[in-house]
User: Fold 4-diphosphocytidyl-2-C-methyl-D-erythritol kinase from Siphonobacter curvatus.
Amino acid sequence: MVAFPNAKINLGLYITEKRSDGYHNLESVFVPVGWSDVLEILPASETSFRSTGLPIPGETSTNLCLRAYEQLRKDFDLPPVRIHLHKVVPIGAGLGGGSSDAAFTLKVLNTLFDLKLSTEALEAYARPLGSDCAFFIRNEAKFCVGKGDEFSEIMLNLAGKSILLVYPDLHSSTAEAYAGIRPRPAQAQWTQVLQQPLHTWQASITNDFEQSLFPKYPQLAQIKRQLYEAGAAYASMSGSGSTVYGIFEGEVPEALFPQLTTWQGKL
Ligand SMILES: C[C@@](CO)(OP(=O)(O)O)[C@H](O)COP(=O)(O)OP(=O)(O)OC[C@H]1O[C@@H](n2ccc(N)nc2=O)[C@H](O)[C@@H]1O
Ligand SMILES: Nc1ncnc2c1ncn2[C@@H]1O[C@H](COP(=O)(O)OP(=O)(O)O)[C@@H](O)[C@H]1O
Assistant:
């Protein structure tokens, strides 16, 4: 069975509190985007994992696809599987790519072996695999709080708008990015803001990680500026970086950022 684990972006991101478990509470709107890996899982005589495409750092045994398989195997007598991941989404880029691979592995195994797990049960298996992971079970735009794994509905209408994601080949560690933030209450009136025209959002929502990363990596602020100059109605860094995106009311202008890895599509 083949699936296409996609990336996400964050619309606004506030780190509101340091928790007693070492994690941080946040507020953000998570939105799926179409930049995707390719994941194939087949029953096999023994369990194996191989990846092609972008090289994934770390031991194969720590790959989130295998960890997701092991997570289910604690409770189900799963047959061995052969997993092939073709990695396309940049890694450690604020796009949740690894978390998406893990969530899609859970969903594929649920279907392939008819485990009859509900959406809520799949989310419970996803949570220990990464704070972003549960989001990709439903994979729908949501308002997220807690560690980024508690969701509620949000009114959001971005249908038909175009997005350009720009990855400057600059790896930023999520743990380090969190460590560089001083938590503060969220500044956004989410429900009002998201009903306003897109071009007004830049005055009303921000990503707290920009404050700590932009001074360190001026290239990121420059990409954001260039996106606005090119006509983006809203531009921001995603997650803990380093991907910066621009949302356009019409088509994305041609030939932007020819030297960098980019992806463009419709929301
Ligand atoms: C910043 C965000 C925003 O969407 O996205 P990315 O930049 O990773 O895409 C997420 O919170 C990233 O979630 P995820 O990448 O799943 O993080 P995890 O693997 O659970 O945690 C990695 C490390 O980040 C820190 N961490 C993560 C989530 C959180 N709410 N508080 C934290 O303090 C912890 O130090 C943790 O050890
Ligand atoms: N299938 C996978 N794809 C990407 N990264 C993975 C995967 N499995 C484990 N990882 C590890 O997860 C980390 C990056 O996760 P990723 O979700 O791409 O980043 P981010 O959370 O910043 O969007 C890397 O340290 C990488 O070694």
Q: What stands out?
A: The radius of gyration is 18 Å.
